[in-house]
Amino acid sequence: MNILRDYTRAISAARAALGDLFNIDDYPHGKKENDMKATNKFPVEISVSHGTLRNQDLIPAFLEAVSHLAPAVYEQMTMGIFPAVPQYAQEDDDHEWWYTETAYWVLEQLDDVLNDYAPDGYYFGAHEGDGSDFGFWKIIDEEE
Hints:
Structural class: alpha+beta
Strand content: 5-15%
Largest sheet: 3 strands, antiparallel
Strand order of the largest sheet: 1-3-2
Oligomer: single chain
């Protein structure tokens, strides 16, 4: 399996879904993320990654979502001295890095960022009915 092909496929799918939903062209990198969060209006729930629990699949898809919702956070995570996913891991689907505590930490950080940037009334995480479907889901009030 070619990790770069799969990585690119996951990024393209997430970009296609998120780009339309968030009108990304309206939000230049210089805009404050808090302003972006306040203007996000989800017309529907959206899946960011489905059918897998592998770090090799989840991390690239979550990173793509972060790139749209919080460009400054994305830049910090990918362009810093210690990028979120090392190049050698991006090139090798079976590299041991994907199974390290660091990879799980990166996944947790991405999950936290996405949940923080979910619009009011939505959360980011696994779908109640399908634990392998990660995305933005409407919070259902049990009292309703």
